[in-house]
Specification:
The protein is an alpha/beta fold. 41% of the residues lie in helices and 10% in strands. Helix 1 packs antiparallel against helix 3. The chain is globular and about 55 Å long. The N terminus is likely disordered. A 7-stranded mixed beta sheet has the order 4-2-3-1-5-6-7, with helices on both faces. The longest helix is centred in the last third of the chain and has 40 residues. The protein starts with a helix and ends with a helix.
Amino acid sequence: MDRCSTNTKSLYAQLQISDPNKTKTAESSLLDKPGRKFSEFNAEEYSSSIQTKMAESSLLDKPWRKFPEFNAETANKLKEELVDYGPDSETGVTAANVLLIGQIGAGKSSFFNSVNSIFRGKITNKARSGSFEHSLTTVYRKYNVKDHNSGKTLKIRLCDTRGLEEEFTIDPQEISHILDGNVPDRYQFNPSAPFTTETFGFIRNPHLGDRIHCVAFVLDGSTIDVIPEKILKQMKAMQSRMNQRNIPQVVYLTKLDKVCPMVEEDAGHMFHSSAVRKAVDKIADVMGLPRGFVLPIKNYESETILDQNIDILILKALKQTADFADDYMEEQVEKMVAENGQGRKEKE
């Protein structure tokens, strides 16, 4: 059953203004284009365009992915799990490092701001974000998130790097240094001089805790079909280096409210939206990742107050990312133990 048709009728009904005062207000303020009054607006044409958009993003009766209930209990449970989270003591790592990578304007820095907002209990903007021609992120940052209620700092660090651009290709070796933990916090990026072993601050003997434990590609779900070829090539080159190191990867698929009007109305509709499901399937194929590794979210952008359903999507994505980071750290510890054992045998 398509529940979008009901919403279409509701929108059409809103155009039938019976109050003369309201009609007068509409004529003076709602202009389709300069010099055209609301009374001349083609309501039937408008309704038709709404119906088309709704048809492309119908709501399914059953969710296309199993997901926790959108309620206060789920939100509180996820927050508690993330506040209590910590890498296994055997790893010797104090916090999981999650690298955020994405094209400029996709919502990379906005994701950190959204996470920070949830745990601060209000909308914040610690990392510079917005839609600009070039990346606003010019410094490599390892952001910590502090829970306002408990006073605890989450043991997950969100590492923000430059946004991907067609004109300025990120040096592949620079990404390798970031993955391996050679790049210090607050390093100033310089497109004309990539980070090398000779760069001041280069960490020569990084520990497991300095490395990246999981990578999150932050991608704009509304522009999947028009991702520039140069950007795709950059991401594929990065993935190759990540795969060489067995670093897990996920996708945070953002701006899905632009793909489905019903998600714009309520983020809780995310897993009932056929348009969102199609976007997830498509980007999974593009990135060569399992569909379960593509995590649909909505960042805080136009909102001025927190929304429980937006919180749940972000918190669940972060929790799954932390789980993948744990898998990587566990694998690295096992690898080090095996190498140490082999080394002892060779000495004997």
